[in-house]
Amino acid sequence: MSTVRHRPEGLEQLEVQTRFSRKELQILYRGFKNECPSGVVNEDTFKDIYSQFFPQGDASTYAHFLFNAFDTDHNGSVSFEDFVMGLSILLRGSVQEKLNWAFNLYDINKDGYITKEEMLDIMKAIYDMMGKCTYPILKDEAPRQHVEIFFQKMDKNKDGVVTIDEFIDCCQNDENIMRSMQLFENVI
Amino acid sequence: MAAGVAAWLPFARAAAIGWMPVANLPMPIAPTEKNKRQDELIILNVSGRRFQTWRNTLDRYPDTLLGSSEKEFFYNEETKEYFFDRDPDVFRSVLNFYRTGKLHYPRYECILAYDEELAFFGIIPEIIGDCCYEEYKDRKRENAERLLDDQEDNKDSKLPNMTFRETMWRAFENPHTSTMALVFYYVTGFFIAISVITNVVETVPCGATPNQKDMPCGERYTVAFFCMDTACVMIFTVEYLMRLFAAPSRYRFMRSVMSIIDVVAILPYYIGLVMTNNEDVSGAFVTLRVFRVFRIFKFSRHSQGLRILGYTLKSCASELGFLLFSLTMAIIIFATVMFYAEKGSTSSKFTSIPASFWYTIVTMTTLG
Predict the structure, then answer these.
(1) Which residue of B has its CA nearest to A149?
(2) Which of A23, A171, B151, B241 is 20 to 30 A from B49, comparing alpha carbons?
(3) How many contacts, defined by CB atoms under 8 Å, are there between A and B?
(4) What ipTM was assigned to the predicted interfaces of this complex?
(5) Residue B353 burial (C-beta neighbours within 10 Å; 0-12, 13-18, 19+)
(6) Closest-CA distance of chain A to residue B24, Å
(7) In chain A, what residues touch B14 (CB-CB under 8 Å)?
(8) What is the pTM of this model?
């Protein structure tokens, strides 16, 4: 069995392409390579790592969607470049870019529209991840209700799908969401 | 949390973007680390050998010596390094634990030295990885057993006030403790030998008397042999009762192999006394006399070598049992085959499968 070995592009190139400093890239790469010595993350390792942060629930479905969002070239594995580009957008990108990324996450089949089914899948994945230890205890129809609320808010022309413009528009007008987006500044 | 996964924390926090647009309330602020300093290399000088690692690596396990502020006690201001006067070889394993999250036990290390180092650095041995855990446990057990043996040997040297019973038991178990014990030891040994020789000589043909044909000595000198047997059995019975009295745990003593051998050795005599001349049972009684030969096993109290042989057999009991089992399987298979193969011919000796067992056994053990 040949192990997939992947070497990332040079440090300088990544410095240019992402908004991380050299030192930050070094720290990120060390952590990445420690957990994935072969240089790429496959979906199982991804799920494994993510589940360790959410031990009380089942984070595998959400991790699956996350993996697809990080894996921009859809080759089944996330290399360090994919990883660091994604992180660069999420942590250092503009609000527009972040919202774009979130839309991409929700749009499971990447067709440019979020349907109710896709949203329901995502919602269920998030609820699964939270597990049964939430307060107050969530009922089983909670995901569906949540999706309804979301669509009522986002779907302006009531055509049953949410496009990227509707999404970004609505989020920019929502104070809570804007405030939450600011929190990403100090994560690394 | 595994060691390296802590480095993925920014990623986990970034992934929270997924539920932000759907959340009903604004997200709480992420906790920031109080003194967030840049990661730096620290030098650990262990008896001259310098190890270097990132400070973050050591911080992964804050309840150990290296991960907590306890290491500051070992900080050397002039050389700007942490000096530990410990074994650098074992320290390798300790440091690898921080790096990889797995603690390995190297085979060549002495178990006690390893344990001491782990204790010094505040690492509990239970987190040894599965790959090395068996080895570690085995070595620990061997060490504990050896310590126990040593303790038992050392116990002889100190003699607190023991009760009469305890003295007796010690005398029985270890004949070199007192002269009485030694005398008792030799006397019982002598009588075991006499008893065995008697049993053997009993069956030797003694020479013909004028009026009768050749008969074994036992039948010629019945009274003499009977007296000898009685004497031996009396000595053995007294010995058994004395041991039973002196044993610290009578129940355990009665269950031990040696005491069972004692009982089996003297029982035929008493059974013979009880059943006098009942014709039916005397046939069975004669068979019981065979058990007198077990007296020879009483020698194992006198011979360490025999005891070692016994322990060896006991410790390979499972392997020997398996050997027996596989031989039995083979015997049954071949006996069946032989039986059915010869079934056609009328004059075959293999009248049934059990009847073919003898042939199979004799052939398989190459006796012929």
Answers:
(1) B22
(2) A23
(3) 93
(4) 0.78
(5) middle
(6) 8
(7) 86-87, 90-91, 184, 187
(8) 0.53
